[in-house]
Amino acid sequence: MNLLWLLSSGSGTWNPLLWLLAFIVALAAAWFIRSFGRKDFREGLQQEPFISGNEEPADGGGHIPASNLYWGFLESLSGYYSRLIPLHTGILTDYVAWFLGVMAVMLVIALIV
Amino acid sequence: MATLLQHLPALLVAVPLFAAFTLPLVGRTGAPARTAWVFLGALLTAATGLLLAWQVFAHGPLLYVFGAAAPHVPTPMDSGGIPIRIIFQIDALGALMVVIASLSSLAIILYSLASDSRHSGKDSFYSLLFLLVAGVLGMVSTGDLFNFFVFLEISSLSGAALVAYRVDKGQAVEAGLKYALLSTVGALAFLVAVGLLFAQYNALNIAVVASRLQFTPLDQIALVLLAIPLAMKCGAVPMHFWTPDAYSTAPSSITAFLVVSSQASLYGLFRILFSLYGHLLEFSWLTFGWFLIILGVLSMFIGVTMAIPQKDVKRLMAYHAVSQTGYMLLGVGVGLAVLGNAEALTAYGRTAMAGGLFHILNHAMYKGLLFLTAGAIFFRTGTRNLNKLGGLGHHMPWTMVFFMIGALAIAGIPPFNGFASKFLIYESVFRFSPFLSIIAMLVSILTLASFVKVFHAMFMGAARTEFAQVREVPIPMIAGMAILAAVVIVTGLMPRPFIDHMILPAVNALVDRADYIAAILGGH
Questions:
Q1: Closest Cα in chain A to B454
Q2: pTM here?
Q3: What mean pLDDT comes out for the span B337-348?
Q4: Which of A59, A73, A88 minimises the CB distance to B241?
Q5: What range defines the domain where residue B160 resides?
Q6: B241 and A95 in contact by Cβ < 8 A?
Q7: Which of B154, B256, B371, B443 is least surrounded, with the fewest CB atoms within 10 Å of its CB?
Q8: Is the residue at B524 inside a domain?
Q9: How far apart are the first and last CA of chain A?
Q10: Is 0.90 exceeded by the ipTM?
Protein backbone atom coordinates (compact mmCIF):
# COMPACT_ATOMS: atom_id res chain seq x y z
CA MET A 1 0.00 0.00 0.00
CA ASN A 2 2.76 2.39 0.97
CA LEU A 3 4.54 1.66 -2.27
CA LEU A 4 1.63 3.16 -4.14
CA TRP A 5 1.01 6.14 -1.92
CA LEU A 6 4.07 7.22 0.01
CA LEU A 7 6.46 9.67 -1.61
CA SER A 8 9.77 10.33 0.10
CA SER A 9 12.14 13.20 -0.59
CA GLY A 10 14.92 11.89 1.63
CA SER A 11 14.16 14.50 4.26
CA GLY A 12 10.39 14.26 4.38
CA THR A 13 7.45 12.23 3.16
CA TRP A 14 4.16 12.94 1.48
CA ASN A 15 1.20 10.60 1.61
CA PRO A 16 -1.68 11.55 -0.71
CA LEU A 17 -3.84 8.87 0.93
CA LEU A 18 -3.73 10.72 4.26
CA TRP A 19 -4.57 13.96 2.49
CA LEU A 20 -7.50 12.26 0.76
CA LEU A 21 -8.72 10.90 4.09
CA ALA A 22 -8.49 14.37 5.64
CA PHE A 23 -10.37 15.77 2.67
CA ILE A 24 -13.11 13.16 3.03
CA VAL A 25 -13.39 13.90 6.77
CA ALA A 26 -13.70 17.62 5.99
CA LEU A 27 -16.40 16.87 3.41
CA ALA A 28 -18.26 14.73 5.94
CA ALA A 29 -18.04 17.54 8.52
CA ALA A 30 -19.37 20.01 5.97
CA TRP A 31 -22.24 17.69 5.12
CA PHE A 32 -22.96 17.24 8.83
CA ILE A 33 -23.10 21.01 9.43
CA ARG A 34 -25.23 21.48 6.34
CA SER A 35 -27.73 18.94 7.67
CA PHE A 36 -28.61 21.49 10.39
CA GLY A 37 -29.90 23.85 7.68
CA ARG A 38 -33.52 24.64 6.89
CA LYS A 39 -35.43 21.63 5.65
CA ASP A 40 -38.10 23.70 3.91
CA PHE A 41 -35.69 25.32 1.43
CA ARG A 42 -36.80 25.05 -2.20
CA GLU A 43 -35.23 26.37 -5.42
CA GLY A 44 -36.53 29.86 -6.11
CA LEU A 45 -37.21 30.73 -2.48
CA GLN A 46 -33.72 32.15 -2.11
CA GLN A 47 -33.69 35.91 -1.65
CA GLU A 48 -31.78 38.32 -3.87
CA PRO A 49 -28.19 38.95 -2.72
CA PHE A 50 -27.85 41.97 -0.45
CA ILE A 51 -25.35 44.47 -1.85
CA SER A 52 -25.51 47.36 0.62
CA GLY A 53 -29.11 47.97 -0.35
CA ASN A 54 -28.32 48.35 -4.05
CA GLU A 55 -29.96 46.24 -6.70
CA GLU A 56 -27.89 43.44 -8.15
CA PRO A 57 -26.30 44.69 -11.41
CA ALA A 58 -27.79 42.91 -14.40
CA ASP A 59 -25.95 40.84 -16.98
CA GLY A 60 -22.56 40.48 -15.35
CA GLY A 61 -22.36 44.12 -14.35
CA GLY A 62 -21.22 43.08 -10.90
CA HIS A 63 -18.44 40.94 -12.24
CA ILE A 64 -15.01 42.38 -11.52
CA PRO A 65 -12.96 42.27 -14.72
CA ALA A 66 -9.58 40.52 -14.70
CA SER A 67 -7.67 43.78 -15.19
CA ASN A 68 -9.03 45.14 -11.89
CA LEU A 69 -7.80 42.16 -9.90
CA TYR A 70 -4.43 42.49 -8.15
CA TRP A 71 -4.36 46.21 -8.86
CA GLY A 72 -2.58 46.79 -5.55
CA PHE A 73 0.00 44.12 -6.29
CA LEU A 74 0.80 45.57 -9.69
CA GLU A 75 0.83 49.12 -8.35
CA SER A 76 3.19 48.30 -5.52
CA LEU A 77 5.54 46.59 -7.99
CA SER A 78 5.16 49.29 -10.63
CA GLY A 79 8.88 50.04 -10.52
CA TYR A 80 9.65 46.41 -11.33
CA TYR A 81 7.02 46.17 -14.05
CA SER A 82 7.98 49.47 -15.63
CA ARG A 83 11.37 47.93 -16.37
CA LEU A 84 10.29 44.37 -17.14
CA ILE A 85 7.37 44.89 -19.52
CA PRO A 86 9.23 47.21 -21.94
CA LEU A 87 11.82 44.46 -22.43
CA HIS A 88 9.06 42.43 -24.08
CA THR A 89 9.05 44.55 -27.20
CA GLY A 90 7.54 42.01 -29.57
CA ILE A 91 10.27 42.89 -32.06
CA LEU A 92 11.97 39.90 -33.66
CA THR A 93 15.41 41.48 -33.89
CA ASP A 94 15.32 42.10 -30.14
CA TYR A 95 14.54 38.43 -29.57
CA VAL A 96 17.52 37.44 -31.73
CA ALA A 97 19.71 39.99 -29.92
CA TRP A 98 18.88 38.48 -26.52
CA PHE A 99 19.61 35.00 -27.87
CA LEU A 100 22.96 36.05 -29.32
CA GLY A 101 23.81 38.06 -26.21
CA VAL A 102 23.26 35.10 -23.89
CA MET A 103 25.27 32.91 -26.24
CA ALA A 104 28.14 35.42 -26.27
CA VAL A 105 28.20 35.64 -22.47
CA MET A 106 28.16 31.86 -22.14
CA LEU A 107 30.96 31.53 -24.70
CA VAL A 108 33.13 33.80 -22.58
CA ILE A 109 32.25 31.91 -19.39
CA ALA A 110 32.84 28.50 -21.03
CA LEU A 111 36.23 29.51 -22.37
CA ILE A 112 37.31 30.95 -19.00
CA VAL A 113 36.03 28.00 -16.99
CA MET B 1 4.67 -10.02 -33.36
CA ALA B 2 8.33 -10.44 -32.43
CA THR B 3 9.35 -8.72 -35.67
CA LEU B 4 6.97 -5.89 -34.94
CA LEU B 5 8.38 -5.44 -31.46
CA GLN B 6 11.91 -5.53 -32.85
CA HIS B 7 11.15 -2.62 -35.16
CA LEU B 8 9.21 -0.51 -32.65
CA PRO B 9 11.83 2.30 -32.57
CA ALA B 10 11.57 2.68 -36.34
CA LEU B 11 7.79 2.55 -36.20
CA LEU B 12 7.82 5.28 -33.58
CA VAL B 13 8.60 7.87 -36.25
CA ALA B 14 7.46 5.87 -39.28
CA VAL B 15 3.82 5.71 -38.14
CA PRO B 16 3.29 9.49 -37.69
CA LEU B 17 5.33 10.20 -40.84
CA PHE B 18 3.18 7.75 -42.81
CA ALA B 19 0.03 9.34 -41.41
CA ALA B 20 1.36 12.79 -42.31
CA PHE B 21 2.21 11.99 -45.91
CA THR B 22 -0.89 9.93 -46.69
CA LEU B 23 -3.37 12.38 -45.16
CA PRO B 24 -3.65 14.66 -48.21
CA LEU B 25 -4.53 11.59 -50.27
CA VAL B 26 -7.00 10.16 -47.77
CA GLY B 27 -8.52 13.61 -47.25
CA ARG B 28 -9.57 13.68 -50.90
CA THR B 29 -12.00 10.82 -50.27
CA GLY B 30 -14.00 12.88 -47.76
CA ALA B 31 -14.14 14.21 -44.23
CA PRO B 32 -15.20 10.96 -42.49
CA ALA B 33 -12.27 9.06 -44.03
CA ARG B 34 -9.87 11.83 -43.01
CA THR B 35 -11.19 11.90 -39.47
CA ALA B 36 -10.89 8.12 -39.19
CA TRP B 37 -7.35 8.23 -40.62
CA VAL B 38 -6.27 10.97 -38.22
CA PHE B 39 -7.72 9.12 -35.25
CA LEU B 40 -6.15 5.83 -36.34
CA GLY B 41 -2.79 7.53 -36.86
CA ALA B 42 -2.94 9.11 -33.41
CA LEU B 43 -3.97 5.85 -31.79
CA LEU B 44 -1.23 3.83 -33.49
CA THR B 45 1.41 6.46 -32.73
CA ALA B 46 0.44 6.52 -29.05
CA ALA B 47 0.26 2.71 -28.87
CA THR B 48 3.69 2.37 -30.49
CA GLY B 49 5.18 4.93 -28.13
CA LEU B 50 3.67 3.44 -24.99
CA LEU B 51 4.62 -0.11 -25.99
CA LEU B 52 8.17 0.97 -26.72
CA ALA B 53 8.41 2.84 -23.42
CA TRP B 54 7.10 -0.18 -21.58
CA GLN B 55 9.83 -2.31 -23.19
CA VAL B 56 12.49 0.16 -22.09
CA PHE B 57 11.22 0.41 -18.51
CA ALA B 58 10.78 -3.37 -18.25
CA HIS B 59 13.87 -4.63 -20.09
CA GLY B 60 16.35 -1.74 -20.30
CA PRO B 61 17.55 0.64 -23.02
CA LEU B 62 16.78 -0.10 -26.67
CA LEU B 63 19.09 0.29 -29.63
CA TYR B 64 17.92 0.39 -33.20
CA VAL B 65 20.32 0.68 -36.13
CA PHE B 66 18.51 1.89 -39.23
CA GLY B 67 19.16 -0.15 -42.37
CA ALA B 68 21.16 -2.84 -40.59
CA ALA B 69 20.50 -6.55 -41.01
CA ALA B 70 20.75 -6.88 -37.23
CA PRO B 71 19.17 -3.68 -35.92
CA HIS B 72 20.31 -4.20 -32.33
CA VAL B 73 24.03 -4.44 -33.13
CA PRO B 74 25.44 -0.90 -33.17
CA THR B 75 28.83 -1.70 -34.73
CA PRO B 76 28.68 -3.96 -37.80
CA MET B 77 31.59 -6.36 -38.34
CA ASP B 78 32.85 -4.44 -41.35
CA SER B 79 32.69 -0.98 -39.77
CA GLY B 80 36.04 -0.99 -38.00
CA GLY B 81 34.35 -0.73 -34.63
CA ILE B 82 32.52 2.49 -35.52
CA PRO B 83 28.73 2.81 -35.51
CA ILE B 84 28.22 3.91 -39.10
CA ARG B 85 24.47 4.21 -39.39
CA ILE B 86 21.79 6.30 -37.75
CA ILE B 87 21.10 4.75 -34.37
CA PHE B 88 18.11 5.28 -32.13
CA GLN B 89 19.16 4.89 -28.51
CA ILE B 90 16.22 4.98 -26.15
CA ASP B 91 17.04 4.80 -22.47
CA ALA B 92 14.73 5.53 -19.53
CA LEU B 93 14.97 9.29 -20.04
CA GLY B 94 14.08 8.96 -23.72
CA ALA B 95 11.28 6.55 -22.83
CA LEU B 96 9.88 9.05 -20.32
CA MET B 97 9.75 11.66 -23.05
CA VAL B 98 8.17 9.15 -25.45
CA VAL B 99 5.41 8.50 -22.88
CA ILE B 100 4.78 12.24 -22.54
CA ALA B 101 4.67 12.81 -26.30
CA SER B 102 2.48 9.74 -26.91
CA LEU B 103 -0.13 10.56 -24.29
CA SER B 104 -0.20 14.24 -25.20
CA SER B 105 -0.46 13.62 -28.94
CA LEU B 106 -3.39 11.24 -28.50
CA ALA B 107 -5.31 13.63 -26.25
CA ILE B 108 -4.54 16.65 -28.40
CA ILE B 109 -5.40 15.07 -31.75
CA LEU B 110 -8.64 13.71 -30.32
CA TYR B 111 -9.47 17.21 -29.07
CA SER B 112 -8.55 18.83 -32.38
CA LEU B 113 -10.96 16.59 -34.31
CA ALA B 114 -13.75 18.70 -32.85
CA SER B 115 -11.98 21.99 -32.12
CA ASP B 116 -10.78 22.39 -35.71
CA SER B 117 -13.84 20.87 -37.35
CA ARG B 118 -15.16 24.29 -38.44
CA HIS B 119 -11.96 25.28 -40.24
CA SER B 120 -10.77 24.58 -43.75
CA GLY B 121 -7.36 23.20 -44.74
CA LYS B 122 -7.56 20.23 -42.44
CA ASP B 123 -5.46 17.92 -44.64
CA SER B 124 -2.39 20.14 -44.34
CA PHE B 125 -3.18 20.92 -40.71
CA TYR B 126 -3.10 17.30 -39.64
CA SER B 127 -0.14 16.50 -41.90
CA LEU B 128 1.84 19.22 -40.15
CA LEU B 129 0.62 18.05 -36.75
CA PHE B 130 1.80 14.49 -37.41
CA LEU B 131 5.12 15.88 -38.67
CA LEU B 132 5.44 17.81 -35.41
CA VAL B 133 4.73 14.64 -33.44
CA ALA B 134 7.27 12.67 -35.51
CA GLY B 135 9.86 15.41 -35.00
CA VAL B 136 9.43 15.38 -31.23
CA LEU B 137 9.49 11.58 -31.02
CA GLY B 138 12.62 11.53 -33.18
CA MET B 139 14.39 14.13 -31.03
CA VAL B 140 13.92 12.09 -27.86
CA SER B 141 14.84 8.78 -29.48
CA THR B 142 17.87 9.42 -31.62
CA GLY B 143 21.41 8.77 -30.50
CA ASP B 144 22.89 10.78 -33.34
CA LEU B 145 23.72 14.49 -33.19
CA PHE B 146 23.00 15.29 -36.81
CA ASN B 147 19.83 13.23 -36.72
CA PHE B 148 18.78 15.23 -33.65
CA PHE B 149 19.29 18.40 -35.66
CA VAL B 150 17.10 17.00 -38.46
CA PHE B 151 14.28 16.14 -36.08
CA LEU B 152 14.69 19.52 -34.35
CA GLU B 153 14.20 21.17 -37.72
CA ILE B 154 11.18 19.00 -38.56
CA SER B 155 9.51 19.92 -35.27
CA SER B 156 10.47 23.62 -35.55
CA LEU B 157 9.28 24.12 -39.11
CA SER B 158 6.06 22.16 -38.71
CA GLY B 159 5.48 23.94 -35.38
CA ALA B 160 6.02 27.37 -36.96
CA ALA B 161 3.66 26.52 -39.83
CA LEU B 162 1.01 25.40 -37.35
CA VAL B 163 1.42 28.53 -35.22
CA ALA B 164 0.74 30.62 -38.34
CA TYR B 165 -1.93 28.28 -39.72
CA ARG B 166 -5.07 30.18 -38.70
CA VAL B 167 -3.62 33.58 -39.79
CA ASP B 168 -5.74 35.53 -37.21
CA LYS B 169 -5.52 38.90 -38.97
CA GLY B 170 -1.79 38.47 -39.41
CA GLN B 171 -0.98 38.05 -35.71
CA ALA B 172 -0.55 34.30 -35.99
CA VAL B 173 1.57 34.69 -39.11
CA GLU B 174 3.83 37.15 -37.32
CA ALA B 175 4.17 34.80 -34.36
CA GLY B 176 4.89 31.89 -36.71
CA LEU B 177 7.56 33.94 -38.46
CA LYS B 178 9.22 34.82 -35.14
CA TYR B 179 9.16 31.18 -34.05
CA ALA B 180 10.53 30.02 -37.42
CA LEU B 181 13.33 32.58 -37.57
CA LEU B 182 14.48 32.12 -33.99
CA SER B 183 14.33 28.34 -34.39
CA THR B 184 16.35 28.57 -37.58
CA VAL B 185 19.03 30.79 -36.01
CA GLY B 186 19.22 28.39 -33.07
CA ALA B 187 19.31 25.33 -35.31
CA LEU B 188 22.12 26.89 -37.37
CA ALA B 189 24.19 27.37 -34.21
CA PHE B 190 23.43 23.77 -33.30
CA LEU B 191 24.53 22.62 -36.75
CA VAL B 192 27.81 24.56 -36.52
CA ALA B 193 28.48 22.81 -33.20
CA VAL B 194 27.75 19.41 -34.75
CA GLY B 195 30.19 20.32 -37.53
CA LEU B 196 32.88 21.31 -35.01
CA LEU B 197 32.53 17.98 -33.23
CA PHE B 198 32.41 15.97 -36.47
CA ALA B 199 35.50 17.73 -37.80
CA GLN B 200 37.47 16.79 -34.71
CA TYR B 201 36.19 13.34 -33.88
CA ASN B 202 34.91 12.00 -37.20
CA ALA B 203 31.69 10.81 -35.62
CA LEU B 204 28.12 11.98 -35.11
CA ASN B 205 26.90 9.35 -32.69
CA ILE B 206 26.48 10.95 -29.24
CA ALA B 207 28.05 8.04 -27.39
CA VAL B 208 31.04 7.86 -29.75
CA VAL B 209 31.64 11.62 -29.62
CA ALA B 210 31.25 11.53 -25.81
CA SER B 211 33.91 8.84 -25.55
CA ARG B 212 36.37 10.84 -27.67
CA LEU B 213 35.81 14.38 -26.40
CA GLN B 214 38.96 16.15 -25.21
CA PHE B 215 37.31 19.40 -24.09
CA THR B 216 39.39 21.47 -26.47
CA PRO B 217 38.47 25.15 -26.90
CA LEU B 218 36.47 24.05 -29.96
CA ASP B 219 34.56 21.57 -27.79
CA GLN B 220 33.83 24.34 -25.32
CA ILE B 221 32.51 26.54 -28.12
CA ALA B 222 30.47 23.60 -29.42
CA LEU B 223 28.99 23.08 -25.94
CA VAL B 224 27.66 26.62 -25.87
CA LEU B 225 26.42 26.41 -29.47
CA LEU B 226 24.53 23.23 -28.58
CA ALA B 227 23.17 24.26 -25.18
CA ILE B 228 21.99 27.84 -25.73
CA PRO B 229 19.70 27.13 -28.73
CA LEU B 230 18.10 24.30 -26.78
CA ALA B 231 17.67 26.55 -23.74
CA MET B 232 16.05 29.12 -26.03
CA LYS B 233 13.78 26.48 -27.55
CA CYS B 234 12.57 25.37 -24.14
CA GLY B 235 11.64 28.96 -23.34
CA ALA B 236 14.22 29.78 -20.68
CA VAL B 237 14.47 33.43 -19.63
CA PRO B 238 15.90 35.68 -21.10
CA MET B 239 15.32 33.87 -24.40
CA HIS B 240 11.64 33.25 -23.76
CA PHE B 241 10.17 36.15 -25.72
CA TRP B 242 8.90 33.97 -28.55
CA THR B 243 6.79 31.75 -26.27
CA PRO B 244 3.92 34.13 -25.40
CA ASP B 245 3.68 35.19 -29.05
CA ALA B 246 3.64 31.66 -30.45
CA TYR B 247 1.65 29.96 -27.69
CA SER B 248 -1.10 32.57 -27.60
CA THR B 249 -1.82 32.72 -31.33
CA ALA B 250 -1.49 29.03 -32.26
CA PRO B 251 -4.62 26.87 -32.22
CA SER B 252 -4.96 25.56 -28.66
CA SER B 253 -4.40 21.94 -29.61
CA ILE B 254 -1.13 23.00 -31.24
CA THR B 255 -0.12 25.11 -28.25
CA ALA B 256 -0.58 22.09 -26.01
CA PHE B 257 1.81 20.10 -28.17
CA LEU B 258 4.27 23.00 -28.52
CA VAL B 259 4.72 22.61 -24.77
CA VAL B 260 5.83 19.01 -25.38
CA SER B 261 8.04 20.19 -28.24
CA SER B 262 9.72 22.67 -25.89
CA GLN B 263 10.26 19.91 -23.38
CA ALA B 264 11.92 17.80 -26.07
CA SER B 265 14.45 20.64 -26.37
CA LEU B 266 14.87 20.53 -22.61
CA TYR B 267 15.56 16.81 -22.96
CA GLY B 268 18.19 17.67 -25.59
CA LEU B 269 19.80 20.21 -23.25
CA PHE B 270 20.04 17.63 -20.45
CA ARG B 271 21.36 15.01 -22.89
CA ILE B 272 24.10 17.38 -24.05
CA LEU B 273 25.14 18.44 -20.55
CA PHE B 274 25.04 15.01 -18.93
CA SER B 275 25.52 12.31 -21.59
CA LEU B 276 27.73 14.15 -24.08
CA TYR B 277 29.80 16.47 -21.90
CA GLY B 278 29.17 14.98 -18.45
CA HIS B 279 32.63 13.64 -17.62
CA LEU B 280 34.44 16.64 -19.12
CA LEU B 281 32.52 19.11 -17.04
CA GLU B 282 34.04 17.48 -13.99
CA PHE B 283 35.80 20.69 -12.96
CA SER B 284 32.90 22.89 -13.87
CA TRP B 285 29.85 20.90 -12.81
CA LEU B 286 29.11 23.58 -10.26
CA THR B 287 29.41 26.31 -12.90
CA PHE B 288 27.13 24.60 -15.41
CA GLY B 289 24.80 23.49 -12.64
CA TRP B 290 24.47 27.13 -11.61
CA PHE B 291 23.95 28.03 -15.27
CA LEU B 292 20.83 25.84 -15.24
CA ILE B 293 19.81 27.06 -11.78
CA ILE B 294 20.08 30.75 -12.75
CA LEU B 295 18.11 30.13 -15.95
CA GLY B 296 15.58 28.24 -13.83
CA VAL B 297 15.15 30.93 -11.18
CA LEU B 298 14.92 33.70 -13.78
CA SER B 299 12.36 31.66 -15.74
CA MET B 300 10.29 30.88 -12.65
CA PHE B 301 10.16 34.40 -11.32
CA ILE B 302 9.97 36.48 -14.49
CA GLY B 303 7.54 33.99 -16.05
CA VAL B 304 5.07 34.16 -13.19
CA THR B 305 5.34 37.91 -12.63
CA MET B 306 4.79 38.55 -16.33
CA ALA B 307 1.76 36.24 -16.26
CA ILE B 308 -0.11 38.15 -13.56
CA PRO B 309 -0.87 41.37 -15.52
CA GLN B 310 -1.88 39.53 -18.73
CA LYS B 311 -5.41 39.90 -20.09
CA ASP B 312 -5.16 37.27 -22.87
CA VAL B 313 -5.74 33.91 -21.21
CA LYS B 314 -3.40 32.02 -23.53
CA ARG B 315 -0.67 34.62 -23.23
CA LEU B 316 -1.00 34.36 -19.46
CA MET B 317 -0.71 30.58 -19.64
CA ALA B 318 2.30 30.89 -21.97
CA TYR B 319 4.16 32.91 -19.34
CA HIS B 320 3.27 30.25 -16.82
CA ALA B 321 4.78 27.65 -19.17
CA VAL B 322 8.01 29.66 -19.02
CA SER B 323 7.73 29.78 -15.24
CA GLN B 324 7.16 26.03 -14.89
CA THR B 325 10.14 25.26 -17.13
CA GLY B 326 12.13 27.06 -14.46
CA TYR B 327 11.28 24.36 -11.91
CA MET B 328 12.65 21.68 -14.23
CA LEU B 329 15.84 23.64 -14.83
CA LEU B 330 16.20 24.28 -11.10
CA GLY B 331 15.76 20.62 -10.11
CA VAL B 332 18.10 19.20 -12.74
CA GLY B 333 20.51 22.11 -12.28
CA VAL B 334 20.94 21.27 -8.59
CA GLY B 335 21.62 17.67 -9.61
CA LEU B 336 24.27 18.82 -12.09
CA ALA B 337 25.84 21.20 -9.56
CA VAL B 338 26.43 18.38 -7.07
CA LEU B 339 27.33 15.72 -9.65
CA GLY B 340 30.92 15.72 -8.43
CA ASN B 341 29.92 15.39 -4.78
CA ALA B 342 28.81 11.80 -4.23
CA GLU B 343 27.49 12.50 -0.74
CA ALA B 344 25.35 15.46 -1.82
CA LEU B 345 24.25 13.64 -4.96
CA THR B 346 22.94 10.76 -2.88
CA ALA B 347 21.50 12.96 -0.15
CA TYR B 348 19.49 15.31 -2.35
CA GLY B 349 20.94 15.65 -5.87
CA ARG B 350 19.13 12.67 -7.35
CA THR B 351 15.90 13.70 -5.62
CA ALA B 352 16.19 17.20 -7.08
CA MET B 353 16.70 15.72 -10.53
CA ALA B 354 13.79 13.33 -9.98
CA GLY B 355 11.62 16.32 -9.06
CA GLY B 356 12.75 18.18 -12.17
CA LEU B 357 12.13 15.24 -14.50
CA PHE B 358 8.81 14.37 -12.83
CA HIS B 359 7.81 17.98 -13.33
CA ILE B 360 8.38 17.57 -17.09
CA LEU B 361 5.78 14.78 -17.17
CA ASN B 362 3.40 16.64 -14.88
CA HIS B 363 3.76 19.95 -16.65
CA ALA B 364 3.07 18.41 -20.05
CA MET B 365 -0.17 17.00 -18.69
CA TYR B 366 -1.57 19.94 -16.71
CA LYS B 367 -0.31 22.69 -18.98
CA GLY B 368 -1.62 20.79 -21.99
CA LEU B 369 -4.93 20.49 -20.15
CA LEU B 370 -5.00 24.21 -19.33
CA PHE B 371 -4.32 25.20 -22.93
CA LEU B 372 -7.10 22.85 -24.06
CA THR B 373 -9.54 24.46 -21.62
CA ALA B 374 -8.53 27.90 -22.90
CA GLY B 375 -9.17 26.57 -26.40
CA ALA B 376 -12.59 25.30 -25.32
CA ILE B 377 -13.48 28.77 -24.03
CA PHE B 378 -12.31 30.36 -27.28
CA PHE B 379 -14.17 27.71 -29.28
CA ARG B 380 -17.47 28.71 -27.70
CA THR B 381 -17.05 32.44 -27.00
CA GLY B 382 -14.62 33.55 -29.72
CA THR B 383 -12.49 35.58 -27.31
CA ARG B 384 -9.39 35.05 -25.21
CA ASN B 385 -9.75 38.40 -23.48
CA LEU B 386 -10.29 37.78 -19.77
CA ASN B 387 -11.99 41.17 -19.36
CA LYS B 388 -14.74 40.10 -21.74
CA LEU B 389 -15.38 36.70 -20.17
CA GLY B 390 -17.41 35.70 -17.12
CA GLY B 391 -20.13 33.44 -15.84
CA LEU B 392 -19.12 30.55 -18.07
CA GLY B 393 -19.32 28.08 -15.21
CA HIS B 394 -23.08 28.07 -15.79
CA HIS B 395 -22.68 26.87 -19.36
CA MET B 396 -19.45 24.86 -19.46
CA PRO B 397 -19.28 22.78 -16.27
CA TRP B 398 -16.94 20.11 -17.64
CA THR B 399 -14.51 22.68 -18.97
CA MET B 400 -14.62 24.43 -15.59
CA VAL B 401 -13.84 21.21 -13.72
CA PHE B 402 -10.94 20.41 -16.06
CA PHE B 403 -9.64 23.96 -15.67
CA MET B 404 -9.79 23.63 -11.88
CA ILE B 405 -7.82 20.37 -12.01
CA GLY B 406 -5.16 21.94 -14.23
CA ALA B 407 -5.01 25.17 -12.24
CA LEU B 408 -4.68 23.43 -8.88
CA ALA B 409 -2.02 21.13 -10.32
CA ILE B 410 0.10 23.96 -11.75
CA ALA B 411 -0.15 25.86 -8.46
CA GLY B 412 1.17 22.81 -6.62
CA ILE B 413 -1.95 22.18 -4.57
CA PRO B 414 -2.29 18.64 -3.13
CA PRO B 415 -3.16 16.04 -4.17
CA PHE B 416 -2.55 16.89 -7.83
CA ASN B 417 0.63 15.95 -9.63
CA GLY B 418 2.16 19.42 -9.60
CA PHE B 419 2.44 19.15 -5.84
CA ALA B 420 4.22 15.79 -5.97
CA SER B 421 7.02 17.05 -8.20
CA LYS B 422 7.27 20.42 -6.49
CA PHE B 423 7.44 18.66 -3.12
CA LEU B 424 10.55 16.80 -4.30
CA ILE B 425 12.05 20.01 -5.70
CA TYR B 426 11.33 22.14 -2.60
CA GLU B 427 12.73 19.65 -0.14
CA SER B 428 15.85 18.70 -2.07
CA VAL B 429 16.69 22.20 -3.28
CA PHE B 430 16.28 23.48 0.29
CA ARG B 431 19.24 21.31 1.32
CA PHE B 432 21.29 22.83 -1.50
CA SER B 433 20.18 26.41 -0.92
CA PRO B 434 17.19 27.39 1.23
CA PHE B 435 16.93 30.69 -0.64
CA LEU B 436 16.27 28.93 -3.97
CA SER B 437 13.64 26.73 -2.37
CA ILE B 438 11.87 29.76 -0.90
CA ILE B 439 11.81 31.41 -4.34
CA ALA B 440 10.28 28.24 -5.79
CA MET B 441 7.54 28.28 -3.13
CA LEU B 442 6.90 31.99 -3.64
CA VAL B 443 6.49 31.37 -7.37
CA SER B 444 3.93 28.67 -6.61
CA ILE B 445 1.94 31.12 -4.47
CA LEU B 446 2.00 33.69 -7.28
CA THR B 447 0.95 30.96 -9.72
CA LEU B 448 -2.05 30.16 -7.55
CA ALA B 449 -2.93 33.85 -7.34
CA SER B 450 -2.73 34.16 -11.10
CA PHE B 451 -4.99 31.18 -11.73
CA VAL B 452 -7.50 32.34 -9.12
CA LYS B 453 -7.79 35.48 -11.26
CA VAL B 454 -8.29 33.44 -14.42
CA PHE B 455 -10.87 31.20 -12.76
CA HIS B 456 -12.77 34.19 -11.45
CA ALA B 457 -12.61 36.00 -14.77
CA MET B 458 -13.78 33.10 -16.93
CA PHE B 459 -16.14 31.03 -14.85
CA MET B 460 -17.42 32.99 -11.86
CA GLY B 461 -20.22 35.51 -11.75
CA ALA B 462 -23.81 35.55 -12.95
CA ALA B 463 -24.72 34.14 -16.34
CA ARG B 464 -24.49 36.75 -19.09
CA THR B 465 -26.89 37.29 -21.94
CA GLU B 466 -24.09 37.52 -24.53
CA PHE B 467 -23.09 33.99 -23.59
CA ALA B 468 -26.65 32.68 -23.35
CA GLN B 469 -26.10 30.46 -26.39
CA VAL B 470 -22.80 29.08 -25.08
CA ARG B 471 -22.89 25.39 -24.27
CA GLU B 472 -20.39 22.72 -23.35
CA VAL B 473 -17.84 21.72 -26.01
CA PRO B 474 -18.29 18.56 -28.14
CA ILE B 475 -17.45 15.14 -26.73
CA PRO B 476 -14.08 14.66 -28.54
CA MET B 477 -12.83 17.87 -26.91
CA ILE B 478 -14.08 16.72 -23.51
CA ALA B 479 -12.44 13.33 -24.09
CA GLY B 480 -9.11 14.95 -24.96
CA MET B 481 -9.20 17.06 -21.81
CA ALA B 482 -10.38 14.06 -19.74
CA ILE B 483 -7.34 11.97 -20.78
CA LEU B 484 -4.94 14.64 -19.56
CA ALA B 485 -7.00 15.34 -16.41
CA ALA B 486 -7.00 11.63 -15.57
CA VAL B 487 -3.20 11.49 -15.84
CA VAL B 488 -2.94 14.61 -13.64
CA ILE B 489 -5.06 12.95 -10.95
CA VAL B 490 -3.47 9.49 -11.14
CA THR B 491 0.11 10.80 -11.07
CA GLY B 492 -0.86 13.07 -8.19
CA LEU B 493 -2.55 10.41 -6.09
CA MET B 494 -0.08 7.63 -6.85
CA PRO B 495 3.24 9.29 -7.64
CA ARG B 496 5.37 6.53 -6.19
CA PRO B 497 5.03 3.93 -9.01
CA PHE B 498 5.81 6.64 -11.58
CA ILE B 499 8.81 7.83 -9.57
CA ASP B 500 10.15 4.31 -9.03
CA HIS B 501 9.61 2.87 -12.50
CA MET B 502 9.98 5.89 -14.77
CA ILE B 503 11.57 8.89 -13.09
CA LEU B 504 14.40 7.35 -11.05
CA PRO B 505 15.56 5.19 -14.01
CA ALA B 506 15.55 8.40 -16.07
CA VAL B 507 17.67 10.13 -13.40
CA ASN B 508 20.07 7.19 -13.43
CA ALA B 509 20.23 7.36 -17.23
CA LEU B 510 21.42 10.96 -16.94
CA VAL B 511 23.83 10.49 -14.06
CA ASP B 512 25.38 7.18 -15.15
CA ARG B 513 26.54 8.33 -18.55
CA ALA B 514 29.03 5.44 -18.85
CA ASP B 515 26.09 3.12 -19.46
CA TYR B 516 24.90 5.32 -22.29
CA ILE B 517 28.29 5.10 -23.99
CA ALA B 518 28.75 1.41 -23.23
CA ALA B 519 25.46 0.57 -24.93
CA ILE B 520 27.02 1.66 -28.22
CA LEU B 521 30.71 0.90 -27.77
CA GLY B 522 30.51 -2.08 -25.43
CA GLY B 523 32.52 -2.52 -22.26
CA HIS B 524 31.50 -1.63 -18.71
A1: A66
A2: 0.94
A3: 92
A4: A88
A5: 1-276
A6: yes
A7: B154
A8: no
A9: 49
A10: yes
